Amino acid sequence: AARSMTPREREACQMHHIRPSHLISVRRVVEEKREEVLANRRLFDGDMGKVFQAMGGIHAPSLDTNNALLMTKGELRYYTDIDIFRTCVIWKLFHEQNLIHDPKFR
């Protein structure tokens, strides 16, 4: 599992006691969610209101200019099933990789 991780991800997993397989499975979930948003955006000709109706969720899906998926740390925690501190580590890694974004993050 660690072979498909970046050095930064491996370091974060070691430092914060995150199983590499767990990080990889969470990344896969986030990537699948992003692909679902992209597919629905194409299907509904960019009408994100219709995408929201089709996908549901707590807020309308959104992608930034890098196609990073709008996802708060709380939402990511739902997928990680670990404490918020390690979830934040994973969120920051994914943010650095342009997988997710949150305009309220500073």
Structure description:
The chain has five helices and two strands, in the order H-H-H-E-H-H-E. Helix 2 packs across helix 3 (about 50-55) and helix 4 packs across helix 5. It is elongated and about 45 Å long. It has about 110 residues and is mostly helical. The chain has a two-stranded parallel sheet with strand order 1-2.
Question: How can the largest sheet be summarized?
Answer: 2 strands, parallel
**Strand line-up of the largest beta sheet:** 1-2
Oligomeric state: single chain
Number of strands: 2
* End-to-end CA span: 31 Å
Radius of gyration: 14 Å
Which bin fits the share of residues in helices?
55-70%
> Structural class, judged by helices and strands?
mainly alpha
Overall, the morphology is elongated
Order of helices and strands: HHHEHHE
The fraction of residues assigned to DSSP E strands is under 5%
Can you describe this structure in just a few lines?
The chain has helices at 7-16, 20-43, 48-55, 73-80, 84-96, and strands at 69-70, 100-101. It contains five helices and two strands; from the N terminus they run H-H-H-E-H-H-E.
Short descriptors:
single chain; 106 residues; mainly alpha
Topology summary:
Layout: H1 7-16, H2 20-43, H3 48-55, E1 69-70, H4 73-80, H5 84-96, E2 100-101
Parallel strand pairs: 1-2
Helix pairs in contact: 1-5, 2-3, 4-5
